[in-house]
Amino acid sequence: MSERLFDRIPFAKIVTVLAIVFGISLGLCGATAFLSNVVDGGGRGIMNFLIGFGVLEMIAIVLSAVGLVMTLIVFVTLLIFRGFSKKVSQPQKFFEDEDDTKNE
Amino acid sequence: METLAYASGFAVFRWLRRRQGDVVSEPQRWTVLAAAAVGALIGSRLLGIAEQWPTVIEAWRSGRLWELLLSPGGKTIAGGLLGGWLGVVLVKKLSGFQQRTGDLLVLPLCVGIAVGRVGCLVAGLADDTYGTPTTLPWAVNLGDGVGRHPVQVYEILFLILLGVVVSRKMKLPDGARFRIFMASYLGWRIVIDFWKPQPLIGGMNLIQWCCVVGILFLVLDFVRGGKERNERAAV
User: Fold this and answer.
1) What number of other Cβ atoms are within 10 A of residue B215's Cβ?
2) What is the DSSP string of A11-73?
3) Which of A12, A99, B116, B150 has its CA 20 to 30 A from that of B29?
4) Is the ipTM of this complex over 0.90?
5) How far away is chain B from the Cα of A81, in angstroms, using its nearest Cα?
6) CA pair distance B40, B73, nearest whole angstrom
7) Kind of pairing between the strands at B140-141 and B147-148
8) In this structure, is the dihedral angle defined by the CA atoms of residues B109, B110, B115 and B120, taken in order, positive or negative?
9) Backbone angles phi, psi at B148, to 5 degrees
10) How far is B6 from chain A (nearest CA, A)?
11) For the whole model, what pTM was predicted?
12) Residue B81 is inside which H or E element, if any?
């Protein structure tokens, strides 16, 4: 079950993308706060735009944070059930036992 | 600028990966990136807050620690690097994966950090990364009428130099470029942070102490690697 889920869902990719979205939206939020201080009183239109943009950033922050935590929980739980060291791309040695017996 | 830093770092990473290829398969690269990203987020935030330890103690005493943890700002590049590195080391240990994976990240990190530092300079005093006062001719006024060391510009210049040196075509073992980058950047932070007005513990701030630990870890890793190489040569 966990093996099939791992094959179907690219958890690592999702975690990376969500972490990047979270970081970017946090950064944009800071930039918006900075800009709103710079253009303070510079026009109602600009301020309305910045407030709208800030709300969008907040939504992105919350959604990416929740998504990140949930994906991480599922990812780590599945890893525990499946075993961390499974499916690592070490070369498989199908005939090593045969060689060992030959040496003996 | 933080956004631009992430975006430019990732763009350079993709370009390099297309150009040079990768030493690991795609799923493994994503696992390494996921571990690095999560580790960096946690490390950057934790060290960024802990750096201002008097504020943390104050928040702890007044029962406002959660408020402080959820407040904006308070992130540090050194914490991000160390956290990301620790995340990757941990995931590699758990999965038994031994291939060195950091070399491909060196140039993207140099570009990303340099772009981020432009943001630090633009943010000025609102950001906790400004320099101490100076009367040097290249001092910058960040809005309070005081001439300060442009520590962000110093760091951008250092990163350009480091990026050029580390990306030169030299025959180096796998992982060596990343270790050179980490040792240089952590060493640089130990020096440059003496020109930043942060709370000190034993003569250095918390970021500097963490950089010292990171360098010690690198030295231990180098010594262990040398022993393994000698043993292999003896066999």
Assistant:
1) 16
2) HHHHHHHHHHHHHHHHHHHHHHHHHHHHTTTS-HHHHHHHHHHHHHHHHHHHHHHHHHHHHHH
3) B116
4) no
5) 13
6) 15
7) antiparallel
8) positive
9) -130, 160
10) 7
11) 0.83
12) helix B77-95
